[in-house]
Amino acid sequence: MESKLQIISGKYRGRKLMLPVKARPTQNRARIALFNMLKEILNVGEITVWDAFAGSGAFGIEFLSRGWARHAIFTDSDADAIKVIGKNLSGFSADEFVIRHSDALRVSNEFGLLADVVFIDPPYSNLVVAEKLIDKLKPGAIIVWEMESCQEPKIGYEILKDKTYGRARFLIMVKK
Question: Cβ distance 138 to 115 under 8 Å?
Fold first, then answer.
């Protein structure tokens, strides 16, 4: 689906991203603010990022475009999303990414131990899925959790940032 979503910065800055039919993408302005926050927190360059409920893959693609990650993992349970991610990654080197058609919880034992940064934005009504996924991540992982602004998750991790943009709330946490 045609969209106004685009890569914000880096090698592929300005490239339009396709959207899967069921996508609810994080808008460009909120992603700009999110990446400005992450710039203050991360040691970029040699990290692996996991876009766990990838949709269009915008989060992981942004990391690759900026050169912040050496590797990105994209998972989504929707077959249409997987096709769209593949198209959105055209021009990127195949050794920079893995795309897996799977539920994030099913592959959490594999990818949870590899990822230094994990972007979690499951269907907003399902905090339990995100909480279960977070439990599978390696210690020291940075978690970027997008949720509905009014939600209060049960967490036991160090919160580095907690910002709200419209209806989206971003919690940036570190797993101890």
Answer: yes
Summarize pLDDT for 110-151 with one digit per residue, the tens: 999 999 999 998 665 677 788 888 889 999 999 998 888 877
- Which of 68, 107, 63, 121 minimizes the C-alpha distance to 89? 63
| Residues facing residue 76 across a β-bridge | 101
Q: What is the pLDDT of residue 45?
A: 80
CB 170 within 8 Å of CB 144? yes
Of 54, 48, 157, 56, nearest to 110 (Cα)? Answer: 48
106 vs 86: CA distance, rounded Å: 21
* Phi and psi torsions of 74, nearest 5°: -120, 125
Tokens standing for residue 161: 């940032």
Could you report how far apart the first and last alpha carbons of the chain are, in Å? Answer: 39
How far is 80 from 21, CA to CA, in rounded Å?
7
Note the pTM of the prediction, 2 decimals. Answer: 0.93
Q: Which two tokens stand for residue 175?
A: 């797993």
Question: Are the CB atoms for 48 and 59 separated by under 8 Å?
Answer: no
Quick one: which of 40, 91, 92 has its CA closest to 70?
92
Strand 97-101, strand 168-174: pairing: unpaired
